[in-house]
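Please check our next protein.
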Amino acid sequence: MIDKADSNRPERRSALIAHELSRLNIDIAALSEVRFADEGNLREHGAGYTLYWSGKSSTERRLSGVGFMMKNSIATKLETLPRAHSDRIISMRLPLEKKQHLTIFSVYAPTLMAEPADKDSFYTDLRHHLNNTPVTDKILILGDFNARVGKDFEAWKGVIGRHGIGNCNDNGRLLLEFCTEYQLTITNSIFQQKNHLKTTWMHPRSKHWHLLDYVLVRQRDLRDVLHTRVMPSAECHTDHRLVRCKLKLQTKPKPKKKSYPIKAINVCSLSLVEVKTKFQMTLQQKLEEIPPNDDPTPDILWENMKSVILKTSEVLGHTKRKNKDWFDENDQNIQKLLANKRAAHQAHLANPHCSEKKTTFRQVCYTLQRKLREMQNDWWTHLAWKTQSYADMGDYRSFYEALKTVYGPSHQVQSPLRSSDGLDLLTDSTSILTRWSEHFQNLFSANRTVQDTAMDRIPQLPLRDELDEIPSLEETIEAISQLKSRKAAGVDSIPPEIWKDGGPTLHIVLHNLLVCCWEKGLMAAERS
């Protein structure tokens, strides 16, 4: 995954892998040898995937690392963040229908030549995490085990199917013993298919193909597995081939909520007189159509006004996503290069012994690498020139917006919290919010003793009874006019320009809401 100047792999491999997974319609992929530092997540907006990873610290040499890359639609359904256990094990818990859960592990086992202590440590850790998994959960273990399990299905009944391949080695015996202990089945050996649809890695010297990457499930859940096979057409500049496992599972649907546009409203269009006039007239008409309510609450008034504003904002349009990096901005050209590479790869797979097609495929890969680096260099050069020009002109808003693009796609660090006793690690959003609430309650509600002499030293000012009066419409309009423009919208997605340029009818409706809140002593739930 790491982009380096001396690498023979193309830049932004996370984006390339995401596009390849999208082409093959893979929902969740387990990745090995990610080699990113620490733990975190990265969203690839173009392909629609999110990467979660777990690796060694930034101060250590990173030759391992594991992760998940999943569709954004699945990432939003997670009740808890994927848990980074080590640089060789990461897990996630996916809610299914009928109150069931699927716990998925992405693993990367030590190689055959690794120290026995490292192998024992890996399986000890994996056993520990399996023991802590609820017994009712379905289990899916994916990854590079660096093991050959062979095809002796009679000696390992229930673990190996009738369609294994190759011979067993020492790492294979460790894996078979582990599967026997936890009643797991190696699904790669269950289905009858050609050998090239089973093997995942070619030995660089002997040129023999072997099966090293596995999909393991509980024996009781084997009926959920529809098919496991290698996808030779997948090409992500790695010496391992992609293993695809189809499962008959249904994820738990997200609760349906009243949704509003989450795209940023294009308030710049309000500078056009005809657009501003149309927006005000449309907004006035829709606000006047809101049915009257004899006993309104702040929540009712707010929701009615908010829904009308957001629906009317279609008149203004929405802004496109900013801060695209060089890969996203060159997406069309990159897709053409990837299509050429796929065609050359397919031709090579169809006739692997043809030296001409092999040479053509290598040349296409080199061309892809060279073009990507040229695109990256050109993009950075243009960005540097543009940023400097903004600074020279004193356009500091555009200057700082240009600086934001330097950081590329969204890259976040996982933010779990410790429980109050420090024993448990909280990863689900509900527990994290509860812990923050508990923290601030303890912080601000502690009983403190204030001496009377200290109170006496505070200067006393005369009471201003007029501050307790209901705010007038004029005061509301004046407060709106003092809002600063070009500021980010809050949770309601309504920027300040809407309130300032929405027209007198919007100001009256907003004033009625403020009066209702004032008289009832309540705030709308979303604003409190």
Remarks:
- The first helix runs from residue 13 to 23.
- DSSP finds 15 helices and 19 strands in the chain.
